[in-house]
Design goal:
Blueprint: H1 2-22, H2 34-40, H3 45-61, H4 69-86, H5 94-111, H6 118-138, H7 145-173, H8 178-199
Helix pairs in contact: 1-4, 1-7, 2-7, 3-4, 3-5, 3-7, 4-6, 4-7, 5-6, 5-8
Length: about 200
């Protein structure tokens, strides 16, 4: 547990800083300008739930020394998707895909109590992150993209930390009931995602 806690947090922090040094879930009609908008941008319900789920899933499924890979991969794909979105590239039915990614992460949490290939899960994390990033990029300001990107990446990293902390807390304080709690959370996440998709 000590190894998971210290190394996971350290690697997540380092990866986040590297992504930020190298560098939008608000949608059409939202203000998207500057650092503050970037910081607030990921606080839409669908994006926020997805970020928390990625952190929790990574702690549940990946080996201790690799638990940082889920959040790191998401942030990298998110940044790439934002650039693509800013350049005008988008998946068809993007809003529906983002809502359905919440359903996907709910299912992944439910399946985390069983054995599933980590590579498959990471692939789904990456594709989902690309869609979220495209939505970010489509709403990027005409100028100041770097500050805007910095903002949404910082908030995304914080949300990932929240998911990781939840996973560690369940393992530490509710070890015997952790699987049941995760399945319940996954079910709630899936239902919420279906509701969000119906509202798009």
């Amino acid at each position: 547990m000590k190894s998971l806690t210290s190394h996971t947090v350290a690697k997540l922090a380092a990866t986040g800083l590297l992504v930020l040094a190298g560098s939008a879930h608000a949608h059409t009609g939202h203000d998207a300008s500057g650092l503050v908008s970037g910081l607030v941008h990921p606080l839409g319900l669908d994006h926020m739930l997805a970020m928390l789920a990625v952190g929790l899933w990574s702690v549940r499924v990946l080996p201790a020394q690799r638990a940082w890979q889920g959040p790191a991969l998401f942030m990298l794909a998110l940044a790439a998707g934002a650039v693509m979105g800013a350049l005008g590239f988008q998946f068809a039915m993007l809003e529906q895909l983002i809502a359905l990614s919440v359903v996907l992460f709910g299912a992944m949490l439910m399946l985390s109590v069983h054995k599933m290939p980590a590579a498959l899960g990471l692939g789904m994390v990456g594709v989902s992150a690309l869609a979220h990033g495209m939505a970010h990029g489509a709403e990027a300001p005409a100028s100041g993209f770097a500050a805007y990107a910095l903002g949404f990446l910082v908030t995304t990293a914080v949300l990932h930390f929240g998911g990781v902390a939840t996973g560690l807390g369940l393992r530490t304080f509710m070890a015997r009931k952790a699987s049941a709690v995760v399945v319940s959370l996954g079910s709630a996440l899936g239902l919420t995602g279906l509701y969000l998709a119906s509202q798009v």
